[in-house]
Amino acid sequence: MNWEQFAVKVMSISKIGLKFSKDDYALENYEELERISRDMLNHLPIEPIAKNLYERDLYPTPNVSVRVLLFDNLGRLLLVKEKAEDKWAVPGGWCDVFESPKENAIREVKQEAGFDVEIDRLVGVFQREKYKDYPTLVSEYVHYFVGHIVNGVAMHNHETTEVAFFEIDRLPELSKKTTRLEIGRALEVALYGGDAAFD
Fold first, then answer.
1. DSSP string for residues in the chain
2. Judgement on whether residues 140 and 185 belong to the same structural domain of the protein
3. Domain residues for 89?
């Protein structure tokens, strides 16, 4: 990551914090991060920046997310219980700027489930709104990976309340973040091989 990308990364963190934080002290800190990152960028030989880059009018593109299929030695699938819905999902989430899909996948599993993982391969890229059974205004591409656990213990974070392994044919009720059809397409490639599935 070069200096410009570092400053933009700080700005993206400030945007996320300002959007999701409810704590007044934290909001002040995120506002300061936004100012610092803007000042950093304005010291570079580029067009002056007056506000957060992520508030600009940009060409609309789909959001990008990752999900990771992981199995225990009994062949059971790792799922995390989403705090927001109290339902289960494959660990994963939105991709952060200037990180590869693989880096995001590794980070998301660590944050949501507590495990250090290695990514073995890409098993699918899906246009998620095609799989949702409810109306959505968000267009999203999800990258499904299969990996293996190398270290760590099951541990949830502020987004999740439980971490557990389930038999593939006995999955619990899933959150809106993943669907059986989507997971099924990714599992087929992960378990039986072949080229990555995609829309």
1. --HHHHHHHHHHHHHHHHHH---HHHHHHHHHHHHHHHHHHHTSSS----S-GGGS------EEEEEEE-B-TT-PEEEEEETTTTEEE-SEEEPPTTS-HHHHHHHHHHHHH-EEEEEEEEEEEEEGGGT-SS-----EEEEEEEEEEEEE-----TTEEEEEEE-GGG--PBPTT--HHHHHHHHHHHHH--SPEE-
2. yes
3. 63-198
